[in-house]
Amino acid sequence: VVDEMKNCFSLIKFQLENKDITSVKMRGNNNEILAGWVNVSYNSGNPTWEVDGNRGEKEITITPGSNVSHSSTNAFFAVDDTDNDNNPVDGVYYIAVLPQTLASGLTLEIEKTGGLVATRTINSSITLNRSKIKEFPAPIDHGLEFKKGNIVLDCTDASKFRYGNPATALVERTNSIYNPNSGGTVLAPFDFWLEGYEDYKFNGQVTQWTGSNPPCLSGVSSSNGTPKIKLPTIDGYVLASVKVTYSHSTSDRTISVTDGTNTFASCTMKRGDAASTLDLTHYSFTLSSDDRYLTYSSELGAKFILTYIPESEYPGPEITTDIVINCENAAAFRYNNGTGEVTLPARGSALGTSFNFWLQGSSYTFEGDVTYWSNGNCLCTATRTPIKVPTITGYALKEVRFTYQHTTKDVTYYVTDNSGYTSDENLTAHALGHVNGITRTAGGTIDVSSAVSSTDDRYLIAVGEFNVRMILTYKVK
Questions:
Q1: Going by C-beta distance under 8 Å and a sequence separation of 6 or more, which residues neighbour residue 370?
Q2: Do the Cβ atoms of 33 and 56 come closer than 8 Å?
Q3: Average pLDDT of each block of 10 consecutive residues along the chain (477 residues)?
């Protein structure tokens, strides 16, 4: 017998000041279950709840401007409220949620007309009491910057895929490769898509796997066709990542993402392994196409999530290759008009005015008062005379490797960020790195890869006659 009706849930109340908001999505920062199908116990007037199987929902999405009936993905809410005089107030909404404490707060993802998205994150603990209203007094969209949001295609439940007729499941559950139209082996790839995302087409030879709940998407093995699925191409967006959350097989399966020629990333998984995310935002090759393919070894049986980001936010290729400038042959240096060699004054003669010079065939410019030494073909300057090495956009000097020293004397070589450090005291105090007294044939290396400096300029200075062969290596910043 129920003596008194009880509210089982909590309400979150918020305001929107923008009139063109199309949806608000809420999720807990610890991935808590906020709604869905639950079993409620009256519990002597103190109702409690528990999730019905796996039917809890970790996100709630509402669409302001219309009343929406309750389902597993939508909650009751009102589009207006009343002020102190009982007059309706536009832009006030309620979301019904399961009572609990969100220890790390929550995140609200707000979308407006044109697919522009902004996010409001609250990082402090929020207690949602049963039969109480948690109110956010200020409009949750106030002061937010709206921009194109990500598109996420959740492919973790293969039963949500459709083909041809959007109301019909992709294939019947079967362990055999199945033609969705006539049965039998799949002889040609066909288009398919997730329910509700008809504009985002996949293409491939696939079947739904029966051995898991929910089922995995499974593609043919090489013995039955081409083990490849073409992923959707979305105008204005770029596929940024593929998160493989589950593999049905008890044996290792390698899953890769390619552009048809090059492989962005791969992972090897079997049943029970942790999810693996393939990052496609950094690559060191030239793209062969804008298409993206999911390829796999043997038969695919996997669940995965695709995330697309706006083209404007795509970082493009990550250049990971060092730039190496080999200065071991001083006769290859050119100056001024690009054809003259740096000439050799008589030993002990005064050096001229500083000038630009470079290696034959290279656009990277050095600067300094230099000569090359004829008896060893080394780059040479007078003591404490700086050589400015090339400054390369997007790169920083990583190391200077001396491969040979012509003189038999001990010479200390420095790397600095300023040509004014020409006294021994300044060099010792301000050098970014140095190497002492290298021998004629053994060489030595100055590592400046971790040097902290306010400028990208780098100079080589020697205490003693600078008379060496060297190799410069630059790394990506």
A1: 342, 351, 357, 379, 380, 381, 385, 387
A2: yes
A3: 81 85 90 91 87 87 57 40 54 87 93 85 94 90 87 86 57 43 59 84 74 71 79 93 88 88 85 87 81 85 91 76 85 66 51 75 81 70 89 88 83 90 83 80 85 89 86 89
Nearest residue to 116 via CA among 151, 152, 148: 148
Determine the Cα–Cα distance for residues 468 and 435; give it in Å rounded to an integer. Answer: 13
Sign, CA dihedral 394-397-403-404, equals positive
- What sign does the dihedral 305-96-49-134 (CA atoms) show? positive
C-alpha to C-alpha distances, 243 to 99, 149, 165, 459, nearest whole angstrom? 31, 18, 28, 46
Q: Nearest Cα to 65, choosing from 125, 23, 128, 14?
A: 23
Q: Which residues contact 39 (CB under 8 A, 6 or more apart)?
A: 49, 50, 51, 52
Whole-model pTM? Answer: 0.50
What are the tokens at 272?
Answer: 């029970």
Give me the half-sphere count of Cα atoms (radius 13 Å) on the Cβ side of residue 393: 1
CB contact at 8 A, 116 and 148: yes
Between the CA of residue 353 and those of 330, 332, 337, 356, 378, what are the distances in Å?
19, 20, 16, 10, 20
CB atoms within 10 A of CB 458: 25
- Chain centroid to Cα 444, Å, comes to 38
Cβ atoms of residues 281 and 292 within 8 Å: no
Q: Find tokens 């288009």 and name the residue.
A: 191
Q: Could you tell me which of 82, 80, 64, 66 has the C-alpha nearest to residue 26?
A: 64
Give dist(CA 136, CA 115) in Å, integer: 24
